[in-house]
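Case study.
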Amino acid sequence: MHGENMGGKNTKIRILDAALELISKDGLKATTTKAIAEKASVNEVTLFRHFESKEKLFLAVIDREAMVRFEIIQHDIEPSGDLVEELTMIGNFMSKAMVGKANFFKLMVMEVNRYPEIFDHIGTVPMAAIDMLKKYFDKAKEMGIVRKDVHSEIMAITYFSYLFRILVTTAFLGDDIFMKNRTGDGMRQFAEIFVNGVASRGD
Amino acid sequence: MHGENMGGKNTKIRILDAALELISKDGLKATTTKAIAEKASVNEVTLFRHFESKEKLFLAVIDREAMVRFEIIQHDIEPSGDLVEELTMIGNFMSKAMVGKANFFKLMVMEVNRYPEIFDHIGTVPMAAIDMLKKYFDKAKEMGIVRKDVHSEIMAITYFSYLFRILVTTAFLGDDIFMKNRTGDGMRQFAEIFVNGVASRGD
DNA sequence: CCATAATGTAAGTAAGCACTTGCATGCATG
DNA sequence: CATGCATGCAAGTGCTTACTTACATTATGG
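After joint prediction, the assembly is written out as follows.
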C-alpha cells in the first residue's frame, strides 16, 4: 500500500486541483496544507516536495489557471442581422466560459489584496470580453442595425455587466440567485431589453 | 498613560469598526485579534473582555451592520415621465447606498461558505432594491411609458445588474475598474441604453 | 535486476494564534 | 475620598500550522 507511484505528473495535478478547490472555497489563509494533501489523496510531505511552500503552491495554481487564458473569448464575431438572437448566443457562450472558471475567479478576487500582482490577471478576462463585444457593436453600426449615437464600448460594458452578475453570483454563492426562480430564457429576455429598451414605443 | 477610560461604549465601537475593516480586507481567518486590537488602539485583552471570542466579535460585526438594514432603499418612487432622468437618479442613489456598505458586503460574501446563516442577510439588499425597481416599473406601465410585454421583475433585475457590477468591483477592487477611464456620466449613458435600447430606429 | 526517482510514514520543530490570568492604574460618581 | 469599573500591561498556556528530517516502500526503466 506504500509508495504507489502515480507517475509524478498526475500527483502534481491532483495537488493543484485540490488547492484550487479548497482555496477558492475558504481562502488561502484558512486552507491548510494538510487539507489540500488529504483532498489530493497525497501525503502532506509530498506536497512540500513538489511545491516548496504553501505560497509557491498558491502561485503555481494561479500560473496554471492563467495559462488557459480564456482564448475562447478572443474570437471575433460577425453580426448577422438578428441582434437579439445573436447577443443571446454570445451571452450564453461567454457566461458559460466564465462560469467554468468561477473557482479561479473567486480565488483571484479574494486574494487580490494580499497579492496585488493578481490584479493584472483579473482584468484580462473581462477586458477581452468587453473588447470582443465592442468590435461586434462597431460592425453592427456599420451595418446600420445599431444606433451610432452611443459609444460601442459603453454598449459593451452595459451588456457585459449582466454577464458579470451571473459570474459573480455563481462564483460566490454557487448559483445565479437572482434569476434562479425565474421562468424562461433569462439571457434572451435580457438581450431583448438591451436591444429594444424598455420604453413604450407608443408614438 | 494607563487605563484611559474612554467611556466603554466608544471602545466597543472602535473595536467593531476595526474588525469590519480588517476582516473585510483580509478575511476572517487571516485577521488576527492582535491586529484588530492594534487598529482599534486598544489592548488585545480588552477585545476579549468586550467580546468573548473572535467568532462572537465577528458575529457582533454582522449584527451591527445588518441593523442599519438599508431602509434607505425601502422608499417607493413615483415615475414622473422622464424615465432616463429618473433611472439615472435612482441608480446613482442606490449605487451610493450600496457602495457605502461595500466593506460589509465583501465580508459577507467572503465568509458565507463558513457561516451559511449569512446567506439570509446577503439577499436582503439586492432583493429590496429589485423590489423597489419592480414597483417603479409597474407604475410606469400603468402610465403607459413602459412596455407592457416584459415582466417588471425582469426589467428590475436587468437594471439592477448594472448597479451590482459597480458594487462588486468597488467592494473587491476598490474602484469601478471598467468605467473608471470612461468620460461622461456612466449611469446616465447606461440608463439611456436601458430605456431606449441599442437597436437602430431606422424606420 | 538493480539504480533511481517518487511516494509514504513517523516524529518532531518553531512559530503564531486565540485566549487566560494576575495585577496595576486611572476615572467617575456617590 | 472611597469604591467600582474600564482599561492597560506582562506573562503564559495550549493548540494549530507550515515545514523538516530520517527512513521505509514501491514502481519504472535501462
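Observations recorded in class. The domain at 9-66 of chain A is CATH 1.10.10.60 (Arc Repressor Mutant, subunit A). DSSP finds nine helices and no strands in chain A. We will return to this complex in the next lecture.
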